[in-house]
Specification:
Keywords: Hydrolase. This is Dienelactone hydrolase. One of its GO terms (molecular function) is hydrolase activity. 36% of the residues lie in helices and 21% in strands. By secondary structure, the protein is of the alpha/beta class. It has one domain (5-340): Alpha/Beta hydrolase fold, catalytic domain (Rossmann fold), CATH 3.40.50.1820. A hairpin with a 2-residue loop joins strand 1 (55-62) and strand 2. Helix 6 (183-200) packs across helix 7 (216-227). The structure holds zinc ion. Residues 104, 167, 169, 216, 253, 255 line the site of zinc ion (ZN).
Length: 341
């Protein structure tokens, strides 16, 4: 047989048998610790070096909230912007905060109600649903960093060739992989810096930080939360699945792939490391890149992990009628409620 279909299937099956054997040989606690350490290693470490202090460059009054722009850095020689949305009338006490992570698109402005040039986006929102604005309108502070590789954080060498280039994921991911690092590792280092910053703000209750990420931002949200216990409640939208049914079945951006992850666990077990923290999984019934069948398998496995830990009520699921997009019909309120407890 010349075609490798059956051989590839066998490779996956044999790998999963090995994973099952590893699981049987370890205690649950040991496995959780090992997987967390492995994740840190596989995504690669980014050297920090000398970092400049945060600088606020903009403060704008918007309907119901104030929007600030802060410039941060997690790696010497590389800065990033983040929007901070602060609800009006928040001077009385410290408020919960949410780290809001966008997926593929033009960056944080896409979730903070703006067009790429920073002007207000008055048209109906796209798949990101201006979700940072939806959250601040529910009374929580939001920090929305610009994920590297998108919008104004695309490589100049990409935008000079094509100003409409969708992202710089490919060139950044391949170089970092060849250096034994990953684009996820760099993105996570910056997101953790964003968390450092938001907990330092006097308006924020540092014990009440949540995270919400969509699509590629879902990958970043769960990874950041596994590695950073300051993130107390998590919403993953348009991401939860099995590797086999999503990134191994459909052509996805290279930034979704971390070499070696599958040799330790399938995606639901990685996401299950968030147990027993409150977790909300949202997915569209007609999301064809993170398909329903894979979502249902992942949901069942993650539910099993929560059940075994006696934390079944801390997992909430919403499979909504829609595609690869945010719904928010239950997840926004759920997240705000979790952080107000
Ligand atoms: Zn990408």
């Amino acid at each position: 047989m010349f075609q490798a279909d059956a051989w590839m299937e066998q490779q996956y099956r044999k790998n999963m048998e090995k994973v099952a054997q590893q699981t049987r040989e370890q205690s649950k606690e040991q496995r959780r610790r090992d997987l967390t350490d492995v994740m840190r290693k596989l995504i690669g470490e980014i050297e920090t070096g000398e970092l400049p202090a945060p600088v606020i460059t903009e403060r704008v009054s918007c309907p119901g909230y104030t929007r600030e722009r802060v410039i941060l850095s997690a790696a010497e020689g590389l800065e990033f912007g983040a929007y901070i949305l602060i609800p009006d009338n928040c001077s009385e006490k410290a408020l919960p905060a949410v780290l809001a992570i966008h997926g593929h698109g033009y960056g944080s402005r896409e979730i903070a109600g703006m067009l790429p040039d920073g002007t207000a986006d008055e048209s109906p929102p796209g798949i990101h649903q201006h979700f940072a604005v939806q959250l601040v309108r529910r009374g929580v502070i939001v920090i929305a960093p610009d994920v590297v590789g998108f919008g104004e954080r695309r490589l100049r060498s990409d935008t000079e060739k094509n100003p409409e280039a969708a992202s710089s994921c490919y060139r950044m991911a391949v170089q970092l992989m060849m250096l034994g690092k990953t684009l996820t590792g760099l993105r996570i280092a910056e997101l953790r810096k964003a968390v450092d910053y938001i907990v330092s703000r006097p308006e924020v209750d540092s014990a009440k930080i949540g995270v919400m990420g969509f699509s590629g931002g879902g990958l970043l949200a769960y990874t950041a939360a596994v590695l950073d216990e300051r993130l107390k409640a998590i919403v993953l939208t348009g991401y939860t699945n099995t590797y086999k049914d999503s990134i191994l079945a459909v052509q996805h951006c290279l930034c979704n792939y971390t070499p070696g992850m599958l040799t330790y666990a399938e995606l639901p077990e990685w996401i299950g490391l968030l147990c027993p923290r409150p977790l909300f999984l949202e997915s569209g019934l007609h999301d064809f890149i993170f398909p329903e069948a894979g979502f249902r398998k992942a949901e069942a496995e993650i539910q099993h992990i929560y059940n075994q830990a006696g934390a079944s009520e801390r997992l909430t699921v919403d499979l909504f009628p829609g595609g690869h997009e945010i719904s928010g019909r239950k997840s926004y309120d759920w997240l705000c409620q979790q952080l107000r407890k």
